[in-house]
Specification:
mainly alpha
Length: 97
């Protein structure tokens, strides 16, 4: 018997993990702000800017985004504790940084 994910993931993320992919996924003021922060960052800070804005772009392009936002505002969004997330990542052999 094999376990299947509750929310299956595409083999490739909706937004490529690079500056071009992020910029293409964002629109308007958010794209401008991403590019401003990325271009202004020192080389050692560029990764943090990319990571933060990749998460924003993934949220912006999530097909379930409106449903999730509504559930959060209604107080019906399913939540989990950080301790549970850390335990799940450890069990899966994923990084904890």
């Amino acid at each position: 018997m094999t376990a299947q994910p509750i929310h299956p993931h595409d083999p490739e993320p909706r937004v490529p993990r690079n500056a071009n992919g992020i910029a293409e996924a964002l629109t308007g003021v958010r794209r401008v702000e991403f590019l401003r922060q990325f271009l202004a960052s020192a080389p050692e800070g560029a990764e943090a800017v990319l990571r933060r804005w990749w998460c924003e772009a993934m949220l912006d392009t999530d097909p379930s985004g409106d449903r999730i936002t509504a559930a959060a505002l209604d107080g019906t969004l399913e939540t989990t504790s950080v301790a549970d997330l850390i335990a799940r990542r450890r069990e899966a052999g994923l990084p904890l940084e």
